[in-house]
Amino acid sequence: MEKPLLVIGIGASAGGLQALTEFFKHVDTSTGVAFVIIQHLYVHARSRLDYFMSRTTKMKVCRVDGPTKVEANKVYVLPEGKMMVIQKGTLLLRDRGNDEIINRAVDIFFKSLAEDCKERALGIILSGTGTDGLEGAKAIEDAGGRILVQDPATTKFDGMPSQIVNKNHPTLILPPAELAESLNWHLEQLTAI
């Protein structure tokens, strides 16, 4: 039986664009995995993240506008005003509720990634403020997956990475370029599962 596609979730917030750019400049474009970027966005302003990422990587960058089956060597980005989960390899959107004042988009996606991919889940936390991502990272680790974190000393805003480093046990803590360069080794390990 063919194994499901490996999916890497990437959570970021303030300062995340710089970290994402540095990360994707160093990612092998033929890894055979899918990347899903969950960045905190303004609810009512159209995100241009897909545009910026398409200028950074040669992989196809897709703004998710409806149910989307993930494919290898593509980058998927969360649109504004939405929350996203993955179920059976398909990205699903819902509106962000008016009561969701604190943005938990990373936690929501990472928890679904843990459930969908189990021990083959891999989450990455980059620059950002607040604590979003901590509960999702715990869910991935509880499922046997891996969490990679940007070294807080290299971030513009260290809130999200520091929460993971201080309250969890990430697999690796490195600057974005080095996280990207470490991926091949992690993917070899996860592919063997």
What does this structure look like?
The chain is of the alpha/beta class and 193 residues long. It has a single domain (7-191), classed as Rossmann fold (3-Layer(aba) Sandwich). The chain is 33% helix and 24% strand. It has helices spanning 16-25, 49-54, 105-117, 134-142, 159-167, 176-191; strands at 7-12, 34-39, 60-63, 68-69, 74-77, 82-87, 90-95, 122-125, 146-150, 172-174. It has a seven-stranded parallel β-sheet, sandwiched between helices. β9, α5 (159-167) and β10 form a beta-alpha-beta unit. α1 (16-25) packs across α6 (176-191) and α3 (105-117) packs parallel to α4 (134-142).
**Roughly what fraction of the amino acids lie in strands?**
15-25%
Number of extended strands: 10
Shape: globular
Number of helices: 6
Structural class: alpha/beta
Major sheet strand order: 3-5-2-1-8-9-10
CATH class call: Alpha Beta
Mean pLDDT: 94
